[in-house]
Description:
alpha+beta, 4-stranded antiparallel beta sheet, 4 strands, elongated
Amino acid sequence: MTLEAIKAAIAELPETERASLASWLVRLDSEAWDRQIDADFSEGGAGTPQLDRNRDCWRVPVVLSYTQLGVVGSVGEIVVDAASGQVMEHTPIAAMQEVAKQLYEQHKDAIEAPLF
Length: 116
């Protein structure tokens, strides 16, 4: 069955069934997002902070993420003092924005693809 055929079939559904389907699709997408977040931020994932024992700090990656793709890439880093929790340094915002724009351009087709 093609996507166009599925769309046509959905258009023919009674309003209550279309609403039920829409609700199910939202739940499905939400569950997929939760799984992606769990993977990205579990130990070894793209968003996992790393303890720098030499400097007694945490290196926290700043990542660009999209619902349908998960983490696209790292755009910078925030360095946090392990004892005080104070931010010691971070990638400048303008630099993070520039990297985010580059990542967006690299993944534009997938980012702009319809969710359903």
